[in-house]
Amino acid sequence: MYTKGDFHSHSTCSDGTLTPEELVSLAKDRNLDIMALTDHDSTNGVDRAIATGEKLGIKVIPAFELSTVYNDETVHVLAYFNDSSYKNSELQDFLKRLVDYRKERAKKIVANLEKYFNISISYDDVYKKSKGSVARPHIARTIIDSGYKYSYNYIFDNFLCKKSPAYVPNLKISTEEGIKKIHESNGIAVLAHPILIKKNPVEQLFNLDFDGIECRYILNTDEDTKRFLNLAKRFGKFTTAGSDFHTKDNSDTKHGIIGTKYLEGEELSTFLEKLNIYK
Predict the structure, then answer these.
(1) Which residue from 11, 19, 55, 88 lies 20 to 30 Å from 65 (Cα-Cα)?
(2) Sheet hosting strand 34-37, strand order edge to edge
(3) Which residues lie below 8 Å from residue 9, measured CB to CB, with a gap of 6+?
(4) pLDDT tens digits, one per residue of 86-143
(5) Is residue 89 one of the residues assigned to a domain?
C-alpha cells in the first residue's frame, strides 16, 4: 500500500540539479514510497527514474510539466500517466517542438542579458548545464558560475522575471490545447501551483477541463491550501501535492526539497484511483 507521495519534481533532464537516479534515491531517503518525475516538456528521464525506483522500492509515475498560456498568463499543467502511453510518437513530437523552441528562447535571453544588463555569458555554457531541455535556471546558474556576484533568487527576480527586458516567453500553447493534448495521450491533467496565478481569478481555471489541482504546494500558506482544497471540492477535482523540487541548494527559496509536501491517506488513494493504480 502506498502511503506517502510527492508528485512534482525536476531532474537534470529539465532544470533540476540531480539526475533522475539521484532524485529517486533522495526521495527514497526522505521516506516517500511513490513519486512523479515532472520535467519541463520532457519525459527523457522517466525510464531511468522508473528503473531506479524498481531497484529501491519506490514507485515512479511517468509525468511531465507543460507551460501553457491562459488570458495572457502562464499556467503550468502537470501531466500524469499510468502506462507507456506517454511514449506515443505524436506526443513526443509535440514535446520535441517545445524543447527545440526552448533552445532558441535561451539564445535570445542570453543576448538580451548582455544588451540590457551588460551580463556576458555563453549560450554554449548554458546548454552544457542542461540535458537538452534548456530553462531559465540553467541561465541563472551560468551567470553565477561566470563570476557575477548575484544570488540565484536575485537573478530570477531582476534579470529573468517576466517584467525584465531580457525575458523571452515560451512557445505559446493555450491551456485548453495543453489539456486536450494530454487527454488525447491517455494522461490526466492537473493545474500546477494555483498560488502562482495572479492575473486571472483562479476559479476561472478550476472551470477548465482539469482532472485535478495541485492544492498542497511549497509556497502555500495554510490558508491558501484550505482555499484550494475547498475549491477543488466545489469544482469536483481531485487533489495533488508537490514540493516542485529542483535542487538541494538552500538559496533556492522558490521550491522545496522533495517530500516537503506530500499526499497521504484518502487524497492519495483518490489520486491513484484516477490513475488506475492500485496497490
Answers:
(1) 55
(2) 5-6, 34-37, 59-70, 73-80, 188-191, 212-217, 238-242
(3) 16, 23, 27, 35, 36, 37, 38, 242, 243, 244, 245, 258
(4) 999 999 999 999 989 989 999 999 999 999 999 999 999 999 888 767 889 899 999 9
(5) yes
**Residue 183 covered by a domain:** yes
Are 188 and 276 in contact by the 8 Å Cβ rule? The answer is: no
Per the DSSP assignment, residues forming a β-bridge with 273 are: none
Interatomic CA distance for residues 43 and 31, integer angstroms: 24
How many CA atoms lie less than 13 Å away from 180 in the CB half-sphere? Answer: 5
Asked if the structure places residue 53 within a domain, the reply is: yes
What is the tally of structural domains in the chain?
Answer: 1
Is-contact 98 171, C-beta < 8 A?
A: yes
* DSSP-based three-state secondary structure for 62: strand
Strands 59-70 and 34-37: parallel
Count CB neighbours of 202 within 10 A: 17
Residue 246 lies in a domain: yes
Which domain covers residue 65, as residue numbers?
Answer: 5-95+173-274
Distance between CA atoms of 139 and 72, rounded to whole angstroms?
24
Which candidate, 228, 159, 223, places its Cα nearest to that of 193?
228
For residue 209, the model assigns a pLDDT of 96
Choice between 277 and 236, residue whose per-residue pLDDT is larger: 236
